[in-house]
């Protein structure tokens, strides 16, 4: 068993890591780290863990961690991991960061996060952990920059189409819908039940920090810089994230030809499911699981394509993909600890 | 007081007409017509009307209706109104049809609804009741074809931009989200609570009968035939409908210049609210009311625009707009009986 | 038209008063008072009021208010009204307080609210505004203590049974379920969407400040002091409140005999609806309206009764009842401005 | 590995068995049986199983089953199992029935289910599978009658109090709240999203078929026949079930003394969690898991007790408890395959 620590113990990302790792055969959580709640039991904040996780949370002690653990999951807000991971870069500890600290170039990070970027040498080592696309790079990485929830869903649908030269890389529109857990554990007006329930509302149009993340990694498969129009919406549900993506086709395709292509593109991947013609992904079809479901429709009237991808934002969009990456880094079966059937209904 | 009858008494459209007309100063409902439930009280189906609406539903008797009523609201499924309205065309009865029977050309109707179209002469007389756009035509109409819920939201945002030559009419994408009441009163798997709750799913991509309706009326303001890519999503809430629309700009605009333009376009309309820069419409901001809220964002990075419009699908998207049209046809204040403040929270 | 001011302008109670008074024929709101947000427009906090309520909120100026208004609605948290109402006691201003400040005896208030009580002379003048029970007293009152949401539902069901000597006054159990708006506008963990959604949880068992309120007014109809066991639950919906009440019968009754009795008890009241045998109240059947729906079942197996009452917590449980009381105090039709049909679906 | 078949393949109970058994180390599902959909893939009905369960459903063939399987889970509606289980009574196949067919005496079954009861000899062999109470009996049973969802939650809270002589067995009131999945997969008005959402409503007051089930097994721990008043409510959420139970105490107790007693009563049980004083169970705290959380409050004002228990109706209230029973029958660790941490948020 490899020993793992989780930093950012009281956020939703950490809680989901704990839930999923419970049944992992090769990883055991030996430390849960929270600066603000060190000394407390996690069940004081999360009563559902009563009697299950009885470990006290600890303050961060880098030197101790280095010696005692094999894998470090960082599930803290942006701006934390970039100050911690450098201490581990010359150790054998595998670092998997769920924040945005290592996803962008230094310039982009400064612009979109408004913070000082990570040091260039560490940034360079970080591999973007989009498990089903950068599989090989991840296998040999020591630092993983786990993708954001929206980029995971958007890029899983977009990259194959760009890579296969199927779509125009100009004029791509991504309409994203996310459950409220995407706004995290912190209280806010937009996550207040009486405001969020029975409501759909766009937010951060054109200004979401996941825009440069999507563009950066999509561009790696294109001949030019890809720019996307990206709009997020809050949906009155807890979990789930759907991206509906609109693009112009480069050549004549049918729904069937696109689905065949996608099926082949992902045929060796365990967690991407290409739906049959006439079916579209539902977030409820992946709840609690690590699947990314993708459906497509070629609109011959307008020679354009609509492609939709659904994930559980806390699993495939965060903790599940982090574990998937840990599996790849350690040469284990990629599905280890992630064999959950979606919770339905 | 003018006397009104409602056909299709047990659907959500009829129920909402009844709710809204309760406080209308110039219209009283004298007959509620339901073929399938004639003789029953409405409260047997809708207990919330207990003690409020005690009238029994009646079977349709055209001759009697002609003599007794002034306004006929038809809130039956597609295929019913086209067989009823012709009997009233030479009378003084004002007909307002909430179904799709008079919205399309005969050819389009056959193709998208798969039914025989209304007779050509009656079809010709019908005016498309998009109240805030076709205001003048509605004032002198005797037959109103009340718009669909999606076209109401989509066209309210699109027509000003096309009319003012602001956007390219190619490559328009409409991403629509609707509450489950849009699926009506009939039981179905997609409207089953355990399936619909905690779920977002696209449906009828590229095949929704509201597509030709949007295209037909948008085209009237363009130099060419407008084609749109239109995708609808079911959202786990009861009421509310949001369209997020993506288009390319024709010339350089800013968010402020577009909002100013829209503000001016709608300045004399009571029910369209253009939101200030940085704000986007929330369906909860219009629940239970006849407002259509519109917000816009010009993405200078991609020279494109995102415009979003929110309505209550059962009010502005159906019964409220029907009453708005009745007000216009009769020369009353357009807000009569529709002065409801949105129900919040 | 009488002029009204609302104190506590940014809470849900005030917002609902504004919504409902919009269509009242005899009351116009001339001032909205908020100490914390004086000078701001209400729509800055509540965008759904954009273009509808454009009045700026003002700071409290008692002397000015005395001269300018006829009716004062106080919708502030507990502890505010008791310091304001005394200034108005020698004026002709009618005061209607929606907080708990005047509902209990001084001793009870100290014990359950942990604050200094209102001065005894003002407290004495306040009439408990349970509109359908204390109708006559309300008509001649100058200060109304508007009931809490739970007491409104609970007492509307209980008082007739106690008054008619139908039930044992020992062993009464009240199981209450409320939508999350009952927790108010303030952010809290229990009202955080991701915590509250898909969840039912009891809270404040045996410790809710509405317990002494229920007991005090129920006791007025009994020969002894009534004690109740009262448990509240948060339900994942925005509006609505249901009380399910369990009691032992004093003599032999059937469901029909109890329903007949209740029907007669409330026969002259506009807003209490006694449901027919076999039907039980649904919160959705009263949403947005001032109705209180009551159903009952006599369990002959255990010689006990189950009686359930449903209200909209923000209407009948707060703002609607306050307006009902204003109507009674002014000799207007009790339904004035409250003729709303429930919003369904 | 033992081989299992599931009868009633397309109901929620069967689907949950499939989800949970996926990770069970000693049970593999070799047959899924559905009379109505034999020959179809389960994913045609449940797209979330796409690519996971690819087995075709089969028609029932009793003789074949006898030879091929070790454990038979019956998850069909009432009236099916009683005709199937007799064929297996002389075989080594362990039968676990999730329906009501074997829970009541013949007389009770006739009265409450309105059907012919199971044959007396088979009925006699069936052991009531309330895992944490009848643990020893279950270990040596060959036919298990798995409890209903409400009785599971209600009896888990009640039996210890009756068994320990803590409460009066007269005047017990059980107020139950269930998520809509409790109404099953079948379409119905009460499970229609637009009707069920934003709604709480009592149903089947005094007439639910779980009443005699609760009374029968509670009575086994009492000196007399226990009668309960039992009311169920539909809550707008998918999963989760909460029972709030009211009873009079027999002697003086404090909240602490009751909680200590319960803690001790269940100390060797893995899936019952007694919450600390001041905490009450939330359905969200057990979602997706096999836990039953119990909290209590002694109201010294009325010498009564409020005890609340929360379960996931589809896990502990159905499939999870069935697997728990299979574990007990086979001498495996009782938590095998059920080690899921609740899904939160």
Short description:
By secondary structure, chain A is an alpha/beta fold. In chain A, 29% of the residues lie in helices and 21% in strands. Chain A is built from twelve helices and 13 strands.
Could you list the spans of chain A in which at least 5 consecutive residues all have pLDDT below 50? none
Helix content of chain A: 25-40%
* Proportion of strand residues of chain A: 15-25%
Strands across the major sheet of chain A, in which order? 8-9-7-10-13-12-11
By DSSP (H or I, 4+ residues per run), the number of helices of chain A equals: 12
Order of helices and strands of chain A: EHEHHEHEHHEHEHEHEHEEHEEEH
Number of strands of chain A: 13
CATH class of the largest domain in chain A: Alpha Beta
Keywords (chains A, B, C, D): Amino-acid biosynthesis, Arginine biosynthesis, Cytoplasm, NADP, Oxidoreductase
Subcellular location (chains A, B, C, D): Cytoplasm
Domain Semialdehyde dehydrogenase NAD-binding (chains A, B, C, D): 3-141
Family (chains A, B, C, D): Belongs to the NAGSA dehydrogenase family. Type 1 subfamily.
């Amino acid at each position: 068993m490899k020993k793992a620590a989780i930093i950012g113990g009281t956020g939703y990302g950490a809680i989901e890591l704990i839930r999923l790792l419970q049944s992992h055969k090769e990883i055991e959580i030996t430390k849960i780290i929270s600066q603000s709640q060190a000394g407390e039991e996690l069940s004081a904040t999360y009563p559902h863990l009563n009697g299950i996780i009885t470990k006290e949370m600890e303050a961060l002690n880098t030197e101790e961690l280095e010696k005692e653990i094999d894998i470090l999951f960082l599930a803290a807000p942006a701006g934390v991991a970039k100050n911690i991971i450098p201490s581990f870069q010359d150790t054998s500890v595998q670092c998997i960061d769920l924040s945005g600290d290592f996803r962008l170039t230094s310039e982009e990070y400064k612009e979109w996060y408004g913070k000082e970027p990570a040091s260039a040498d560490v940034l360079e080592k970080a591999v973007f952990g989009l498990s089903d696309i950068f599989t090989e790079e991840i296998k040999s990485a020591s630092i993983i920059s786990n993708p954001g929830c929206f980029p995971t869903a958007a890029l899983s649908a977009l990259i194959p189409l760009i890579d296969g030269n199927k779509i125009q890389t100009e004029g791509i529109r991504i309409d994203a819908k996310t459950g409220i857990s995407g706004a995290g554990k912190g209280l806010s007006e937009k996550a207040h039940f009486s405001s969020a329930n029975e409501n759909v509302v766009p937010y951060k149009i054109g200004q979401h920090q996941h825009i440069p993340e999507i563009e950066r990694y999509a561009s790696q498969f294109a001949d030019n810089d890809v720019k996307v129009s990206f709009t997020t919406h809050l949906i009155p549900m807890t979990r789930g994230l759907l991206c509906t993506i609109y693009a112009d086709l480069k050549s004549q395709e049918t729904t069937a030809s696109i689905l065949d292509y996608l099926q082949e593109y992902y045929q060796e991947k365990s967690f991407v499911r290409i739906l049959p013609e006439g079916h579209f992904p539902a977030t409820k079809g992946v709840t609690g699981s690590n699947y990314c479901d993708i459906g497509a429709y070629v609109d011959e009237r307008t020679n354009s394509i609509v492609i939709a991808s659904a994930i559980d934002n806390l699993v495939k969009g965060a903790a599940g993909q982090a574990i998937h990456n840990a599996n790849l880094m350690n040469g284990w079966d990629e599905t280890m600890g992630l064999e959950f059937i979606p919770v339905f209904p």
